[in-house]
Every structure is written in C-alpha cells, then in structure tokens.
Amino acid sequence: MPSSSGTRRFRSPLTERPALRARRVGQIIERLQARYPDVQLPLTHQDPFQLLVATILSAQSTDAVVNRVTPTLFAQYPTAQALAAARRRDVERIIKPTGFFRQKTAAIIHMSQSLVERFGGHVPLTMEDLLTLEGVGRKTANVILSAKRLEAWEGGGDPSDGMGIVVDTHVRRLSQRLGLVSSDDVGKIEQQLMAIVPREAWATFSLRLIYFGREVCTAKRPRCRVCPLNALCPSAPYEGYPPWMQTRRTRGMAHEPGHKRKRNAIRR
Ligand code: SF4
C-alpha cells in the first residue's frame, strides 16, 4: 500500500476495527472543526418555513440558484397561509430556474396547505411530523432539525425529536471515501454515521463535510495531495477513487445517485 507520508494506511475500510474507526472519526471531526470553526446553512432563510421551502427547492438544483429565486418567492408568499393559497402558475414562474418546477410547485403548495390544516401554519419540529409533509424526506427533515439546533429554534436540541444526520451527495461521497461507511444506500449511510459520530456533532458534521466536499474533496478532482485529512483517509493512496467505491459502482446502477432521479426528484 503506497504511503508517501509514512502514516499507517488502511487496506479497506471494511476490515478496520470499530475502535480504530471511532478514533479516526474523532480526529476527522477535530480537523474539520479547525478548518471550518463557524458553519451555517447555505440556504438563505428567515424562519423554519422559509428553510423548509428552500430545502425542497434545492433538490436536483444548487443552493446558489435557490438563493436567487427565494427572495422573490418569499416577498410574495411570506407565510404558509400565503403559499397555500397561491396560484400554481405564479409560483411556477418564480421557481422555474430550480428545475422540476411543476413538481416542486405542487409540493410546496401542498406542503403549505398541510401546515395550515394540521399545524396551524407552523413547521413541526420533529422527524415524525416532518415526514408527513409533501416533498419532505429524511434529508430535508434532518436539515430542519439541524437548523433547530444551530439557530436555537424553540430552544434548540431535543434528543427525542428524531434528528439524524443529513446525507446529501457530498456527505455520501465523503463518508465512502473516508471509509466511514460500508454502504451505498443513503438510509444505511445515515444509520452507520449515527453509530460512529458523537450525537452532539450531528448537526455540524454534515455541514462541515459539505464545505469540505466543495472545497477539497470534490466529486471530480479530489485534492488528495494537499488534503488535511490525507493521513486519516483510506482513499488517499487511490487519489480519491478507491476500489471499494468502484466495485459498488460497477455492481449495479440501481445504487447510483441519478437512478430514479425524476421519480424521487423532490422527496429528499
Ligand atoms: S485524501 Fe482525497 S479522498 Fe480522502 S478526504 Fe482528502 S481529498 Fe478526499
């Protein structure tokens, strides 16, 4: 196994002992914290309702595009009540740049109607309730529950609200490259991360991985040679393309992120 720094390398994350993995996770968290001491959600919002709408709009889009359309959207529809009563074509025209705009329009209007009918127009801050809303899957619910802690909504954390860990495309890729998980499935990745990341770090762990995935460990050009996690990463000797990820990729496209993209485009 090549090792330019003389640091211990891992043959495969699947053979690593749990105690060693737990120690490595702690070191990864420390280095990410040092690099990104202050993290905040990239989607512009003023309250839970706006963040929920923006997160639904971000499916298959970019945060930058969403942040360009939401000021207009929220100026015209600032509350769940207003959006619940909106005409579809008016909303479609505003959010069109985010893609899948017809499905997303239907989702945010139906979601707003549910908020009005069942939750008094307020966003419920538990996983169980969030998952009953149109267009809301675990990823979106985890974004809301992370923001609840980071921005101290209703006092912040409540261990019984069901929060997990946000797994988006960056978190999925980096968890695999860093050898923290042994699955390609986002649901299993979340469960495996929850088992090894300390609970108090759940809200910020994903955000820091997302920052890092955009800056250093990018999808197409991971900068392994200058990466501050190099000595802790089993993918470093493979320049970010380890055999365990390629094996899963070739085993079946059913696990690829783009598979069934259209059908699941807005439930995340
Ligand atoms: S060493 Fe490479 S694959 Fe590993 S985290 Fe750094 S950039 Fe990503």
Quick synopsis:
With 268 residues, this protein is mainly α. It has twelve helices and no strands.
Question: What is the helix/strand order?
Answer: HHHHHHHHHHHH
CATH third-tier fold name of the largest domain: Endonuclease Iii, domain 2
Q: What count of structural domains?
A: 2
Main beta sheet, described? Answer: none
How much β-strand is present in the residues? under 5%
Number of strands: 0
Indicate the CATH class of the largest domain.
Mainly Alpha
Question: How does this structure look, described?
Answer:
With 268 residues, the protein is mostly helical. The chain folds into two domains: 17-39 and 165-255, Endonuclease Iii, domain 2 (Orthogonal Bundle); 48-155, Endonuclease III, domain 1. The chain has twelve helices and no strands. The protein has helices at 18-35, 48-57, 63-76, 80-84, 88-95, 101-119, 127-130, 138-150, 169-177, 186-196, 202-215, 243-251.
SSE diagram, text form:
Blueprint: H1 18-35, H2 48-57, H3 63-76, H4 80-84, H5 88-95, H6 101-119, H7 127-130, H8 138-150, H9 169-177, H10 186-196, H11 202-215, H12 243-251
Bound molecules: iron/sulfur cluster (SF4).
Provide the descriptors you would attach to this structure in a database record:
268 residues, mainly alpha, Endonuclease Iii, domain 2, Endonuclease III, domain 1, 2 domains, 12 helices, 50% helix, 0% strand, binds iron/sulfur cluster
